[in-house]
Amino acid sequence: MSTTDTSSNQWESESSKKEVAHQEVAHSQQAGNVQREPDDHITEFPNTWSKYRAVIREPVAEFLGVCILIIFGTGVDCQVVLSSNTGVAPGPKGEYLSINFGWAVGTAMGVWVSGGISGGHINPAVTLALAVYRGFPWKKVPIYIASQLFGGIMGAALVYWNYFHAINIYEGGNGVRTLKTAGLFSTYALSYMSNVSCFFSEFLATAVLLIVVFAMNDRRNAPPPSGLAPLLLFLLILGIGASLGMETGYAINPARDLGPRLLTAMVGYGKDVFTFRNQYWIWCPIMGPFLGALAGGAFYDLFLFTGDESIFNKPNAEARKRHLHAARTQRPHIPSGADAV
Questions:
Q1: Which ranges does the record mark as transmembrane (predicted)?
Q2: Is 108 within 8 Å of 234 (Cβ atoms)?
């Protein structure tokens, strides 16, 4: 065999090997198993924007989660109530149970969107309770609450723009805005309710909410399977609305009430949204949920929770001397993503 023939055979052999290699890579890419070069490295920040996103990711997740909650919640309020006017729709499009379902779906979807990123608080009362009892960083509390509040404003604004013409018809004139439709966005108690009764209604509903949320995140209790936390929250909000929602509208979330209330003040409803029943907006849908969340969290931790995150389980002097502490049992995030435990 000549040198030329040998070189030709070697070239053909190498070409054949390269062709096979290319076919294998193409097949791997089609199968979703992309092969990487030896010097290929993964980075968290592939470009400038990714660095900024890393900073704002959690607050934006809370913003978006609350925004989705309010879109579904106030959206169903508007559809059910406004459709009762024949000028808006030929017939009613829902009833009280529809409202319960709408708010439950909004909660589940809001947590689904934000749970794996920010923990899916979507509620300042939840954020506060987690900071007090679960070691959530206090430095994050103000930005979380601000993001939740702005999410409530934006969600209400989108729904208001969507139902603007229907509201005009229901109110009886263009630009007419009264508490009759302000209640589609924020909560207002029934007239027979005393101030104490209003406060207790929100306090009780939020305490129940936090007890279940804490149980969901307790590894030593009965946490939901991976990805099913939004479903459990759907059932929880549906139950609270169906059982305790009639009297005050079950705000159970300061951002859910204050955000849309601020929006109504901006679009022409006036000061009545704040002066209703001697500043009702402060002590019922804001203070009630905050204090109810703290009470519900305290009850769960005091009697049921055994993890070292809680202030009730911090080691005393004797335990510290022996370097003893309780085991950590809290889940770092709402178990809503594919990587949830």
A1: 60-82, 102-131, 143-163, 192-216, 228-252, 280-305
A2: yes
Domain count for the chain: 1
- 277 belongs to a structural domain: yes
Sign of CA dihedral 331, 335, 338, 341: positive
* Contact between residue 150 and residue 63 where contact means Cβ atoms under 8 Å apart: yes
The band of 309, judged by pLDDT with boundaries at 50, 70 and 90, is confident
* Model pTM score: 0.85
- Nearest-CA neighbor of 132 among 22, 210, 30, 229? 210
CB neighbours of residue 216 within 10 Å: 19
Give the Å distances, CA to CA, from 75 to 112, 161, 164: 19, 11, 12
Alpha-carbon torsion, ordered 55, 61, 63, 66, to 10 deg: -160
Q: Which two tokens stand for residue 127?
A: 């954020």
Buried b / exposed e over 155-172, threshold 16 CB at 10 Å, is bbbbbbeebeebbbbbbe
Per-residue pLDDT, 338: 41
Collapse the DSSP code of 42 into the 3-class scheme (helix H, G, I; strand E, B; otherwise coil) and give the result: coil
Q: Which band of pLDDT confidence, cut at 50, 70 and 90, is reported for residue 83?
A: very high
Residue ranges with strand state E in the chain: none
Domain CATH number, residue 104: 1.20.1080.10
Compute how many other C-beta atoms are within 10 angstroms of the C-beta atom of residue 196: 8
d(CA 81, CA 93): 8
Grade residue 8 by pLDDT with cuts at 50, 70 and 90: very low
Inform me whether the pLDDT recorded for 284 exceeds 50: yes
